[in-house]
């Protein structure tokens, strides 16, 4: 675990590779329970089978807004237990976002005590008074904890920090060492790097890595939270192979691999079901049902209740058919 004092030095040496954002498998009536066996199997698959070096827990794909505080604590504990059993060096990242600073503090203290390496706080989802309010939120947590902190700048919050606002949080809060930039605005990430060159930035827009931004030091060599386990299997590893080429600065080879392996086409074939609900097309979402359906196509356990919890909608048949077809064309499942 990185303490606040050594967070930035720790981030430079430990944030590297694919970080898997874990879904939450539900079971029981209306998905009121969690299938712990399925969750344990997912962690073992990501860390032990695929050898991905980072986990991202209780965040958007996990549907943190639909989980109780006790559930979020236990999900993190199980991820640490299973992940470290498979790989003692796995980096465990916990999202402790909450509308109330006191709830976020409780989850952050728990993550620190449970042995997480770093905590990420998504821009508060309700009543955030711009960057000033978000800075106050971070300061409230940092003053009461001693663990590395990261920002999670997602449009699903309803407010996206500007580069200047993120840089101010970095300047003011010594524990802040990383950020997941989820708004798909590369120009803002480049400006953020100029304003806060010591901040480890992961940009969700993949094109920046092909453009050499990792070589230039604009972005860090880690995917701080993605669903890499949905893009490969133990027998067929196109996603890991692509990422290793990016890390080695073999950009032409990486682009050729993405084309020839079908990764680029797979992105097109999958469509936007992971991040867009058609009934509200202007809103960026983490549609848990879509991620879990994709996992089920690959044979991963998702629990007896395959849907997201409210307030998300159930995944329609159209989405399932498109996801099925994308995986068949990609070759990760039988044709």
Automatic annotation (TrEMBL):
GO molecular function: 4-hydroxy-tetrahydrodipicolinate synthase activity
Protein family per UniProt: Belongs to the DapA family.
Keyword Lyase recorded: yes
Alphabetically ordered keywords of this record: Lyase
Source species of the chain: Mycolicibacterium celeriflavum (Mycobacterium celeriflavum)
Residue ranges that the Swiss-Prot or TrEMBL entry lists as coiled coil: none
SMART domains, sorted: DHDPS (SM01130)
Lyase found in the keyword field: yes
Domain of life: Bacteria
Protein name, as recorded: Uncharacterized protein
Pfam families cross-referenced by the UniProt entry: DHDPS
């Amino acid at each position: 675990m990185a303490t606040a004092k050594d967070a930035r030095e720790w981030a430079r040496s430990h944030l590297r590779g694919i970080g898997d954002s874990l879904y939450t498998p539900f079971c029981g009536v209306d998905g009121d329970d969690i299938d712990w066996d399925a969750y344990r199997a997912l962690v073992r698959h990501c860390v032990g089978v695929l050898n991905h070096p980072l986990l991202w827990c209780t965040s958007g794909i996990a549907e943190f807004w639909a989980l109780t505080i006790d559930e979020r604590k236990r999900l993190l504990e199980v991820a640490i237990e299973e992940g470290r059993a498979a790989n003692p060096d796995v980096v465990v990242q916990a999202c402790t976002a909450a509308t109330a600073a006191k709830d976020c503090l409780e989850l952050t203290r728990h993550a620190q005590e449970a042995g997480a390496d770093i905590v990420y706080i998504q821009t508060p989802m309700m009543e955030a008074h711009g960057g000033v309010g978000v800075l106050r939120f971070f300061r409230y947590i940092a003053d009461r904890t001693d663990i590395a902190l990261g920002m999670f700048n997602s449009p699903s919050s309803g407010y996206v920090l500007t580069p200047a606002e993120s840089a101010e949080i970095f300047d003011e809060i010594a524990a802040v060492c990383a950020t997941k930039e989820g708004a798909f605005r590369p120009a803002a990430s480049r400006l953020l790097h100029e304003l806060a060159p010591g901040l480890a930035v992961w940009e969700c827009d993949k094109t920046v890595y092909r453009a050499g931004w990792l070589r230039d030091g604009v972005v860090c060599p880690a995917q701080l939270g993605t669903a890499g386990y949905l893009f490969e299997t133990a027998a067929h590893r196109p996603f890991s192979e692509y990422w290793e080429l990016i890390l080695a600065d073999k950009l032409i080879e990486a682009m050729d691999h993405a084309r020839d392996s079908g990764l680029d086409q797979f992105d097109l074939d999958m469509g936007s079901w992971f991040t867009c609900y058609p009934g509200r097309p202007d809103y960026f979402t983490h549609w848990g049902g879509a991620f879990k359906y994709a996992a089920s196509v690959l044979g991963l356990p998702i629990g007896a209740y395959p849907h997201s919890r409210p307030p998300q909608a159930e995944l329609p048949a159209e989405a399932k058919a498109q996801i099925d077809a994308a995986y068949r064309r990609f070759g990760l499942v039988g044709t």
